[in-house]
Amino acid sequence: xxxxxxxxxxxxxxxxxxxxxxxxxxxxxxxxxxxxxxxxxxxxxxxxxxxxxxxxxxxxxxxxxxxxxxxxxxxxxxxxxxxxxxxxxxxxxxxxxxxxxxxxxxxxxxxxxxxxxxxxxxxxxxxxxxxxxxxxxxxxxxxxxxxxxxxxxxxxxxxxxxxxxxxxxxxxxxxxxxxxxxxxxxxxxxxxxxxxxxxxxxxxxxxxxxxxxxxxxxxxxxxxxxxxxxxxxxxxxxxxxxxxxxxxxxxxxxxxxxxxxxxxxxxxxxxxxxxxxxxxxxxxxxxxxxxxxxxxxxxxxxxxxxxxxxxxxxxxxxxxxxxxxxxxxxxxxxxxxxxxxxxxxxxxxxxxxxxxxxxxxxxxxxxxxxxxxxxxxxxxxxxxxxxxxxxxxxxxxxxxxxxxxxxxxxxxxxxxxxxxxxxxxxxxxxxxxxxxxxxxxxxxxxxxxxxxxxx
Length: 455
Prior knowledge:
Radius of gyration: 27 Å
Structural class: alpha+beta
Number of strands: 20
Shape: globular
CATH topology of the largest domain: Chloramphenicol Acetyltransferase
Strand order of the largest sheet: 11-20-19-18-14-17
Strand content: 15-25%
Order of helices and strands: EEEEEEEEHEEHHHHEHHEEEEEEHHEEEH
CATH superfamily of the largest domain: Chloramphenicol acetyltransferase-like domain
CATH architecture of the largest domain: 2-Layer Sandwich
């Protein structure tokens, strides 16, 4: 019997991925360990190695396909000597998708991106005749089958899905059923008075203050100006999900502090001038000083190097600094591990290498998964100060602004100094305000007296 090759889970946060490229074609021999495809995860493009041996009998999902759920079949592998006719028998007997998701039928192999309309009937099952009465929406007790778009539209309009009959496959409620229930087939509902969300088993209603709109609703509310679509990448979907969860579940608080960095800039210039000119040379940036200072400050104030869990506060024994790197379609946070144990030159070398490979999509999982604290620096864009969103399960993130000349008072006299504003976003379940203040005080002391970072 053919072996299913399924979409792998290549990272802990991956729920779906894109099939960037097939490295094997139908009929090719495959040995265990062979790289057969390139998979675009939420963070990087990674190679997919075969776990079994045989011959590629059928490619189900073409390269370039997006939004393929983890564990969905993407190809069929024929074992040695197996008759290709087994593919047809297997296709007719195989369940849709992974055989476990009754609520959402699997997308057809040629699908490139998720559609907002009703999905076609599963392969091998004839469509219902037009005159046939739609199957009821209720299956297995109180469960209601409906497309995600139909659920959102019903929630916004205050419709009870349990009162509707679906016209989609197997009685599934689709967009057309919602339009019909609203009395205008094909029409898009306008703004309505907010109503309590419909309680549906297995579905968490969106918060009333953060409604989720279908594309049609957004266009109607905005007056439908000219636009073009940019499909969601796997990375953008994960960023949206994780940061929404962070703001909804993590009680953020913010503390800002001004750091004078004139002395730091002088020492940086001196160190860079003395750097070797060969391949072993280095160029230390202001951000490298920030990473080093934050790591040492976390070592001095270990209560700030912590994460929340349901059973206890986890105080990390190691200081691993995740540094935000901007990409074309989002950001990624490669990690300087044990940053408090590394000198400025080593931090400079690692941060440059990690950033280059992050932009090229060549990071390994262990190089961007984890971290105990994050730093986001927008100073290079001239941003004076900002507040960053915490990346759970970390307990804090430091937002670093631009160093700029500002008036300061020294010994009762007005002077000009280069000042950099840094803002700590803290998880108040883990880090108390006093702990955050202690961390920032230790951080500023190191930044303003950078020679102490060289010891």
